[in-house]
Amino acid sequence: MNLILLIIVVQKILGFLINFRQTLMTTYFIYNAMSYMGDKVSDIFAKIESEKELRSKINNGIKSELGGIDVYMYDDSVNRWVFQNTLYETGPIAKNLQIVPLNSSKNQDNIKMKLVLNRGSWRIDYISLTNIKKEVTLEEIKPKFIKRVEREEEIIDIEALSLINSPNDYLLSMPGDEYKFTFNISGLGKDTDNKNEIFLYSEGYYWEWMRGEWLKDKDLLKLRELVENPADYLKNEAKAYKKYEETMEEAFWESRINTKSYSYYE
């Protein structure tokens, strides 16, 4: 689907900004796949983790079919659309502001941009053209201390701080756990007229769990089709998805679990 044709008169445009996130389409197919696994879900996920060929088949299969956001710019010197980059970020909740440096054979006064993406798979909140002045150097600031909140009481957690600041360890948290991070940013901006931006970066893993009501949907043949013939699977599933799409948004945002019943501090 060619979603946008943007024509703007500018001078020396070097970058294309876009703020975007996924719709619930990917979420729908992920949880459909889990329901097809049924009581074999743990065995299949272990196989995906341990077999590189299977992981590659999934990445080059349904993930590739759903695709990302392809960015093109029209080059007047060759009279054709020139591919710039593909943007991708998983998840329907957090918005992603990303920039694509634009490559052109010459400076153009009329900049024409085109985005190619799967219909219904992405939400775009903002797009613009910009100048890229320079690459900045990031200063990493680690937490000064961490407090764990237990029954409305805040307790300094030395072990949590050690785990978070270690490059090889992870802090294990469960639904219902609450931590408060404190950073010292008082020294920032002294030599730059306080023109700083703060970006919170983290990495880690989260565990998915199987819902009991999904077990009845076990269908390994459907799962095989999803993996082996993703294009046909998506065509066959389109009608069911469109029907569920009408209520999916409300169901998704109302599916938050009651964290109090999961915390191991109860």
Written overview of the protein:
With 266 residues, this protein is α+β, with helices and mostly antiparallel strands. β3 and β4 form a beta hairpin. The chain starts with a strand and ends in a 13-residue tail after the last helix. The strands form 3 sheets. Strands 1-6-3-4 form a 4-stranded antiparallel beta sheet, with no helix packed on it. The chain has a 3-stranded antiparallel beta sheet with strand order 5-2-7, with no helix packed on it. It has 2 domains: 183 residues, Jelly Rolls, CATH 2.60.120; 60 residues, no CATH class. The radius of gyration is 23 Å and the shape is flat. The longest helix is centred in the last third of the chain and has 24 residues. Helices cover 29% and strands 25% of the residues.
State the major sheet.
4 strands, antiparallel
Q: What is the CATH architecture annotation of the largest domain?
A: Sandwich
**Number of DSSP strand runs:** 10
CATH-derived topology of the largest domain: Jelly Rolls
The percentage helix is: 25-40%
- What spatial order of strands do you see in the largest sheet? 1-6-3-4
CATH class categorisation of the largest domain: Mainly Beta
Give the termini distance in whole angstroms.
50 Å
What is the global morphology?
Answer: flat
Structural class: alpha+beta
Radius of gyration: 23 Å
Helix count equals 7
Provide the number of structural domains: 2
Low-confidence parts, pLDDT < 50 over ≥5 residues?
none
* Run of helices and strands: EEHHHHEEEEEEEHEHH
Percent range for β-strand residues: 25-35%
What average pLDDT do the residues reach?
Answer: 84
